[in-house]
Amino acid sequence: MNKYSRVIASKSRFRITNMVTAILLIGMMTFSLVACSSGYEEGKDYGNLSKKDANKTLDAYLSKIDAYEIDAPIDISGNETPVAELPDIGIYPLSVDGSGSINIEIFSSTEKSSTGNDGWLNEVATAFNDSGATIDGKSVNVSIRPIASGLALDYITTGKYIPDAFSPANELWGQMIESKNIPLTKVENRLAGNTAGILMKQSVYDKFKEEYSDVNLTNALKAAMAGDITLAYTNPYASSTGLNMLTAMLHEFDPENPLSEKAQQALLDFQALSPPVAFTTAQMRESAKNGMVDAMIMEYQAYINEPTLKNFVFTEMGVRHDSPVYTFEDTSADKTAGLKLFTEYAKSDSMQKMASDFGFNANDAYQAQNPGLDGAGLYAAQDIWKEKKDGGKPVIAVFVADISGSMDGSRINALKESLINGAQYIGENNYIGLVSYSDDVYINLPIDKFSGQQRAKFNGAVKEFSVEGGTATYDGVLVGLDMLRTAEEKYPGARTMLFVLSDGEQNEGYNFKKVAPVIAALNVPIHTIGYEANIDELKKLSAINEASATDANEKDIVYNLKNIFNAQI
After folding, report:
1. Does the 6-33+45-71+393-568 domain belong in CATH 3.40.50.2300?
2. What is the 3-state secondary structure (H, E, C) of 478-534?
3. Residues 119-158 pLDDT 10s
């Protein structure tokens, strides 16, 4: 007998496969379905429900949810036309907009070109533009575009957009670009000194020193694989520290051949004991603050500027993050000469003093560790990580998609396009289900292995989405949680997660205050993806179990979802 109160009623826009109706009566308590507002509080105690009580409460809630099972059509076509994963570059605005006769656009990693303590290069660029620099009587300016190094790599290697110059966090990205036969010239080895490193809580660090003597990557990996510490890092497809960590690990596992079967097996063993990769440094930092990890990987400049990490100890590892500067084959001679003027200005004593004030230029004595991989090897390392990141355990994921009236127009179109395109990055050994919701909840695709037929049904179900009605977000979440716990019994040891795709405007069914204790007790991470969303509503849902919340719009959601799927499934 099905656990939902009203199951499989006729819906004109769906084909119905079963006409059974069942009501599960839970006499232990009565629950209100009136939606109300409730704010998430970091570190809040949600009542300390036991898992047993959480399951009972979930059953009771489910008895009052309308859920309809849908027969998903098979669609083997995927996207009929190729999807442009990368959005127009204008979605990533310039932080400094130069206006000289010679103007050089620089892609810059975000730790030096964002805001606040991460804005050093913006200050340098503004001062340089005001300095009156000229070449043959022509004024020289620079424009700075803050962009994550992994994203910049994709723009450059696909030819979607190539700037005049590129300053990633480290040299690994330059090697990868060169491996795609895109000629690069290194104009400067170092704009400002920085290092990646292992952060350990002071208490963990002291105990580690007693047992392992030296704190270094070799011993940190031994400790993690022995279960003595929990070591977290970020997505190596997007993050400079994540890529640094991955390549350094593979080199530690087999210095002679970091891509060998021996290295791959060791990575698999490590991943089996490590927490899921953090999509962003901010997410990883929150996990550390809340006691979820003992150690993590971060740049020194980010660490020294974060007050909440003062009880952590930093130890350098991997390649240096000194912000090299490259120019490209098609960059004109005037722009190349202007870029050299700019780098000389950035290297001046006054600008380097400012860099030190922003947290750069520490740990200058640290010598880089060679990962032993060329650009092609770095791409291969990413592929190995994608295959091994789940430590040999399958992932069970349920997508919970908002098809309410507020998603009409560009939002639902972006959701469909991003899900169908993103499906190609989901490993076929994982188990995937699909739920949609408006006033009611629809089980479009029961959980099954994501091989050919399940993938085709996924595409077919997504293409049939149509919007109407209110937004019962948390009803959809509860049904997704129920599907996960049933699948978990069938596949013990699997990693479970939910993805909620919505504009965040919940107005029907259960509210956050009701469901938060259940979600916390069941400990399922809920990754949220906002489509022109009320992102604060989605953030508080993701924050319960330290998952990611992505604030994307219709222009960049396809690319963002690709990266999330690469990192998580």
Report:
1. no
2. HHHHHHHHHHHHHCCCCEEEEEEEECCCCCCCCCHHHHHHHHHHHCCCEEEEEECCC
3. 999 999 999 999 999 999 999 999 999 999 999 999 999 9
